[in-house]
Amino acid sequence: MSQEYDAIVIGGGHNGLTCAAYLAKSGRKTLVLERRHVLGGAAVSEEIYPGFTFTVCSYVVSLLRPEVIQELELAKHGLQLLPLDSAFAPMENGDYFANYADAAATREEIRRHSERDAENYFKFGQLMYEMAYAVKPIIGMVPPDPAGPGVRGLRDMRDLFKHIHGLGKHTFHDLTKVMTMSVADFLEEYFEADIVKALFALNGIIGTKLGPKSPGTAYVLLHHYMGELDGAFTAWGGQRGGTGGVSEAIASAARHHGAEIRTSAPVAQVIVKNGKAVGVALENGDEIRGKTVVSAADPRVTFRTLVDEKELPSDLVTAIDNFKFRGSSGKVNLALDALPKFTAMKDPSLISGMMEICPSMDYLERAYDDAAYGGFSKRPYMDIIIPSTVDPTMAPPGKHVMSIFVQYASYDMPEHGTRDQQRDDFGNAVIDTLTEFAPNLKDIILHKQVLTPWDLEQEIGLAEGNIFAGELTLDQLFFARPAPGVADYRTPIRNYYQCGSGTHPGGGITGGPGRLGALEILRDKA
Amino acid sequence: MPRTTPFHSRTSALCSSQSWQEWSGFLSANMYELDHIHEYNAVRISCGLFDISPLYKYAIRGRDACGLLDRVVTRDVSKCRVGKAMYTTWCDDDGKIIDDGTIARLGEQHYRLTAAIPTLTWLQDNALGFDVQIEDMSEQLGGLSIQGPSSRGVLGAISDADLAGLPYFGVLEGKVAGVPAQISRTGYTGDLGYEIFVAPGDAETVWDAVTEAGQSYALRPAGNVALEMARIEAGLLLIDADFTSAKQTMFEVQKSTPYELGLGWTVKLGKEHFLGQEALRREHARGPAKATVGLEIDIQALEKVFARFAMPLHLPYTAWNDSVPLYSDEEGREHVGKATSGTWSPILKKYVVIGRVAAAQGRVGTRLRMEVRVEGERFTVPATVVQMPFFDPPRKKA
To answer: B133 — phi, psi (to 5°)?
Structure first.
């Protein structure tokens, strides 16, 4: 125990790095300890096959907070976001539906499917925009504890209600609906064409073990609309070189401010003395002293692995044990010899956007039913991008990488034998289904990487493979994330803090938990 | 009726937006799709393909070719070796800027000058007593500009020229798609990029080869909207936007000098007599009255202005050219200059602006205010003077 740091951050995922960057920027001697050999956590790019860069897990960016981009000057450190603004959804009858960056183009495309929906599209877009504006302050604030001591919680709640109230009663009523409805019912109020609803419903189910007809999914939809790119709400993008580039940019900012970052340095335990965190013990036996210890891991690791349960109140232990992870998705990454040809793709420009396998609402609900009791969807929903169509650094000239987010896949797949068999069966179901829509796919695959929820847990450390480090259901949000009383990034152990996606504002490449966690630490340690 | 460039059969087939503008009498695509952002990104992430045929191009040959150019422009052309190009300005007798462009030295006594406005007569009128031949090549050369990090890969796939050995602002004559071409490592984006000039009859062959090779490098045809954003990021001035040609205005107030435009480095006072030399020498001695500056707008302050109207932040997603007041105080009482163009820079994640201010306000770090209008009301937001270019990647010269 020779050196002492002001702050030790456990986990070099994008939130851990963000937290470290803010702490270092404020002059704190900061150390980041990452278990893996690469930084980024789930926001990682790796050359899995020679010459091909895979965005192994997380593949798109939109929720990255503008204040994080500005305050850490991430553009200077290599952040380069490219909009991914079209979506293509082939249908079983050979037709398709597409969503474009240009609202007028989208409206005309919707008109092919329903005149009524084309008109309502503007209304829907406006509503989602209003919602995103309404909740924007929420994602930028430390969750107040309305039941907690002191006036801060009450004051913050009052300010928040004032803001939302100021937006008018329609916004307030709509917000109530979004917070409680199923995405299927919610969309029913605006659209009639099934394929239109199916495409718009996707953001309501991503990363969530719920079908589009389950209540609560409308909020998940909103969570995905809260993103903004260059001030434009609801916009999504990719990062040059894959999402690992976002983590690298944040790491560069952290180093620029003096943070030290170590990889292949797994932490075994937080050292607690007299109810106070005083450092960490690495798996190799080394001990490092720190005045503050911050966990960027998920709540299960933060509270159940890294610290002894005798240091925690029993109700918190119970709450964390009941916290829902329930991974619902897997990932298949392909190195391709050429571009896949989607039979239904009449507009070739759509290949550079997102491709969505969601031919109908029933398809999505059925995909959920398949996996509700374990296993995976026989014909899963897929969210696909081919980043090499816009970013030639991802693959050799003329070759491509395809990122396929697959849902639903359960953590447990008892009907599919060993973990290796499960992975094979899952990968085959994905390729077989996708080949129905892009028949040349099997002929152009050079390499295949398949990750089941179990693999996501083993490789990346996401508990049960949940991509948000805990489901985004209402009971696990805001002042209840990860549990009431510990939503303000503090823990019952003094000098021990949290800053991962299991805290507010939740999952996705937001940097929000990292930033807010750091600001709370700086508030305590001013 | 605007004319069409030698690439028109190809550009018009691709221009699904049908958004065109007039450029030196030619039709020029603003953007190929309904939205410009893919084209902008191509320039910074892969590469964009621009049709730059409307540029005015002149061949100056003969024993006194160098002498004539040295008489007309402000740079020292005698320093330009064969196989090199140089950016320069040229001025009238009062030292007021007429235009800027690039001089490429293609042979011992052979130069090519590109210009934004017609310059043939100006060259001829100043050529009295010089042993030169001046030829207007504007319609004898079609031009393409391939700009962006993957531009070298694209051009390398279809050209036998030694691109790896071609330095920044280098020029050579070689083959592209099997036809003769002038290739220079120049551009208007501040990125790695090349400009190629070919005979109009070869234009379609070259376009087809570039776009086919470009498929493996995510190349996209790109138009003026994307180019405007890129050139502001690169801190490159635009005629009729950031300055007015002394030959195209009757009003003194609209004229400017290279020193005022931050282009003093192109003025070589020590060389032999050139147009505007005396006036520029005097200005240099007393110091220019104005300075051209890069400004960074405080977008958090701008967001607060919008919030007064319960509106989210709105940023300029395409470049603007205007004359926007700059002040030294928040209330907008002390007027110190004007902003002439600006854009949200997606790659820098900054709102960047080019402006011209009183020289005393031109130092990096000076905090000014720029006028913004929201819903018809005027406000000012902080605008800090920063170093230009805003965007200057190492690959540009590497």
So the answer is: -115, 130
Distance between CA atoms of A287 and B178, rounded to whole angstroms?
67
Q: Residues with Cβ < 8 Å from A325, sequence gap 6 or more?
A: A298, A300, A462, A463, A464, A465, A466, A469, A470, A471
Q: Are A366 and A393 in contact (CB under 8 A)?
A: no
A304-313 LR contacts (CB < 8 Å, sep 24+)? A306/A10, A306/A267, A306/A269, A306/A270, A307/A269, A307/A270, A307/A272, A307/A493, A307/A496, A308/A269, A308/A272, A311/A272, A311/A275, A311/A492, A311/A493, A312/A491, A312/A492, A312/A493, A313/A492
Query: What token pair was written down for A169?
Result: 């009663």
Write out the H or E segment, with its range, that includes residue A317.
helix A314-322
The token pair at A370 is 């398949």
Cα→Cα distances B218→A24, A80, A84, A149, A414, Å: 38, 16, 14, 57, 43
Give me the sign of the Cα torsion angle B102, B105, B109, B112.
negative
Candidates B45, B157, B315; nearest CB to A231: B315
Let me know the angle formed at the C-alpha of B196 by B194 and B199, rounded to the nearest 5 degrees: 175
Per-residue confidence in pLDDT tens, chain B, 398 aa: 889 999 999 999 999 999 999 999 999 999 999 889 999 999 999 999 999 999 999 999 999 999 999 999 999 999 999 999 999 999 999 999 999 999 999 999 999 999 999 999 999 999 999 999 999 999 999 999 999 999 999 999 999 999 999 999 999 999 999 999 999 999 999 999 999 999 999 999 999 999 999 999 999 999 999 999 999 999 999 999 999 999 999 999 999 999 999 999 999 999 999 999 999 999 999 999 999 999 999 999 999 999 999 888 999 999 999 999 999 999 999 999 999 999 999 999 999 999 999 999 999 999 999 999 999 999 999 999 999 999 999 999 99
Q: Which two tokens stand for residue A340?
A: 């896949």
Q: What are the E-state strand segments in A240-375?
A: 260-262, 267-273, 276-282, 287-295, 329-336, 354-357
CA angle A107/A112/A117 to nearest 5° reads: 55
* A81 chain-B contacts, CB cut-off 8 A: 346
What are the C-alpha distances in Å from A444 to residues A302, A425, A447? 43, 20, 9
Contacts of A418 (CB under 8 A, 6+ apart): none
| DSSP codes of every residue in B321-341 | EEEEEEESSTTS-SEEEEEEE
Whether the CB of A235 is below 8 Å from some CB of chain B: the reply is no
> Which residues fall within 8 angstroms of residue B122, CB to CB, at 6 or more apart?
B72, B98, B247
Helix/strand/coil for A33: strand
From residue A460, how far is each of A56, A449, B91, B259 by CA, in Å?
10, 14, 63, 57
Q: Which residues of B touch A352 (CB under 8 A)?
A: 38
- Between the CA atoms of A269, A271, A275 and A277, what dihedral angle is there, to the nearest 10 degrees? -100
The verdict on B296 touching A (C-beta cutoff 8 Å) is no
Q: From B63, B52, B114, select the one nearest B88 (Cα to Cα).
A: B114
Cβ of residue B386 closer than 8 Å to a chain A Cβ: no
Structure tokens at A196: 């239109």
- Using CA atoms, how far apart are residues B103 and B84, in angstroms rounded to an integer? 9
Residue A239 contacts B, CB cutoff 8 Å: no
Closest CA to B262 of B334, B337, B350, B189: B337
The model's pTM is 0.91
Nearest to B182, CA basis, from B169, B173, B191, B190: B173
Give the CA-trace dihedral at B261, B266, B267, B272, to 10 degrees: -160
Residue A97: HSE in the Cβ half-sphere, 13 Å Cα cutoff: 23
Q: Do A83 and B41 touch (CB under 8 A)?
A: yes
Q: What is the ipTM of this complex?
A: 0.86
Three-state SS at A447: strand
